[in-house]
């Protein structure tokens, strides 16, 4: 894969290479392959490097890496990961599975590292045979290596995003490529732009807590979060839309039992929510529309259940008892804020409410000024 050959292109300058019209053309063709399955990219490469296989592979690594840098700086990176895996999983599996006997077993620590970052329900150590520090992954071998591929891409993109160059998206060649991508993908940004009945306008993605954003990223990139993580995301998203102030317990410490209809007020609103969730979960590898609709309806207390299954309090994310929630719990400054010695955020919806209130106060202050 291209990440195995990055040493060969480490001395290339991004901004110099991105001004090369041939590279721009190749990047566009590569994006067409990733997002639309158009095979012209490989044909173009072969035409440019006839009988020069080594040069062709080097150019391919450069194009893939340039593309990754650009995509990582846009809202398309999760969709890119998902589609990239779809296009390249056969090639990747062919490469890593050349020696079947050798790759049937991996070290326990390597398996734990992959499964911890994957959250795929099939990668459970207790379900597999472990002997002499090695895990027999034969029953889930393809899943294991595909998840390893996804994790690698995620890690590379996270590093790029963590070291964003503010000048990158101002570069005219980059903007040309981004415009090309926007015109081709017709991507609806379901990861942001959520509307809430308690707030005028759209709520940006960054107003949601890190745990929810991370679950969403996992889903949109084709990951497979645990059952509890999916449930927590669904009920959080539902409450964020219709009643961000709703919490599992009332002031008397009693469990709040309310149905989806009590919260959303109309079946039309609930059905629209279900359709949105189906679009989001359609990215998950094990997606089944009928089952997904049933589980979501059950989680929010609609028809198949008479009450909402609440999103967990933050304490239960940190101490999850193996539910797969702690992986997503990465507190930021807002999560750690305290007032009068007590935490401001004790539930994921507190984080959202804090940001909504801060925005409203800021607007009122500007209006007065």
Range of strand content:
5-15%
N- and C-termini, Cα separation = 56 Å
Helix percent band = 40-55%
* Number of continuous helical runs: 15
Strand order of the largest sheet: 1-3-2
Structural class: mainly alpha
- How confident is the prediction overall: mean pLDDT? 85
Number of domains: 2
Encode the helix/strand succession as letters.
Answer: HHHHHEHEEHHEEHHHHHHEEH
| Global geometry | globular
Largest sheet: 3 strands, antiparallel
Radius of gyration: 23 Å
Low-pLDDT segments? 188-193
Q: Quick one: how many beta strands?
A: 7
Properties at a glance:
369 residues; 7 strands; 15 helices; 54% helix; globular; three-stranded antiparallel sheet; 2 domains; two-stranded antiparallel sheet; mainly alpha
Give a concise summary.
With 369 residues, this protein is mainly α.
List the helices and strands and how they pair.
Elements: H1 14-17, H2 21-36, H3 40-48, H4 53-72, H5 77-96, E1 105-107, H6 108-118, E2 129-131, E3 134-136, H7 141-162, H8 172-185, E4 194-196, E5 199-203, H9 210-220, H10 227-242, H11 260-264, H12 267-281, H13 289-300, H14 314-318, E6 338-339, E7 342-343, H15 348-368
Antiparallel strand pairs: 1-3, 2-3, 4-5, 6-7
Helix pairs in contact: 2-3, 2-4, 2-8, 5-7, 6-7, 10-13, 12-13
Structure commentary:
- This protein is mainly alpha-helical and 369 residues long.
- The protein has helices at 14-17, 21-36, 40-48, 53-72, 77-96, 108-118, 141-162, 172-185, 210-220, 227-242, 260-264, 267-281, 289-300, 314-318, 348-368, and strands at 105-107, 129-131, 134-136, 194-196, 199-203, 338-339, 342-343.
- It has two domains: 2-102 and 113-120 and 138-185, no CATH class; 194-368, no CATH class.
- The protein is built from 15 helices and seven strands.
- Residues 188-193 have low confidence and may be disordered.
């Amino acid at each position: 894969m291209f990440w195995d050959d990055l040493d060969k292109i480490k001395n290339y300058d991004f901004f110099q290479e991105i001004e090369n019209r041939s590279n721009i053309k190749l990047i566009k063709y590569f994006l067409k392959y990733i997002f639309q399955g158009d095979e012209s990219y490989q044909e173009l490469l072969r035409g440019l490097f006839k009988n020069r296989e080594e040069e062709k592979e080097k150019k391919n690594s450069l194009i893939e890496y340039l593309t990754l840098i650009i995509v990582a700086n846009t809202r398309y990176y999760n969709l890119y990961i998902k589609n990239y895996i779809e296009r390249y999983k056969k090639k990747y599996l062919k490469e890593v599975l050349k020696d079947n006997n050798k790759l049937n077993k991996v070290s326990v620590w390597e398996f734990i590292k992959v499964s911890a970052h994957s959250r795929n329900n099939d990668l459970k150590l207790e379900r597999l045979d472990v002997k002499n520090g090695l895990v027999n992954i034969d029953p889930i071998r393809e899943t294991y290596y595909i998840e390893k591929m996804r994790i690698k891409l995620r890690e590379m993109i996270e590093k790029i995003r963590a070291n964003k160059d503010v000048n990158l998206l101002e570069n005219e060649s980059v903007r040309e490529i981004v415009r090309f991508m926007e015109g081709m993908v017709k991507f609806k940004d379901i990861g942001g732009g959520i509307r809430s009945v308690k707030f005028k306008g759209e709520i940006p993605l960054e107003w949601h807590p890190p745990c929810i954003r991370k679950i969403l990223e996992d889903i949109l990139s084709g990951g497979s979060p645990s059952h509890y993580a999916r449930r927590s995301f669904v009920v959080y998203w539902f409450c964020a839309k219709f009643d961000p102030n709703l919490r599992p317990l009332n002031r008397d410490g009693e469990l709040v039992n309310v149905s989806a209809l009590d919260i959303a007020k109309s079946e039309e609103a609930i059905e629209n929510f279900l359709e949105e969730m189906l679009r989001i979960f359609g990215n998950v590898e094990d997606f089944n529309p009928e089952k997904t609709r049933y589980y979501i309806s059950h989680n929010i207390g609609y028809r198949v259940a008479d009450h909402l299954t609440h999103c967990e309090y933050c304490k239960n994310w940190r101490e999850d008892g193996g539910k797969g929630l702690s992986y997503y719990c990465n507190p930021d400054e807002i999560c750690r804020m305290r007032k009068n010695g007590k935490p401001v955020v004790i539930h994921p919806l507190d984080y959202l409410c804090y940001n909504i209130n801060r925005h409203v106060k800021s607007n009122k202050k500007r209006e007065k000024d």
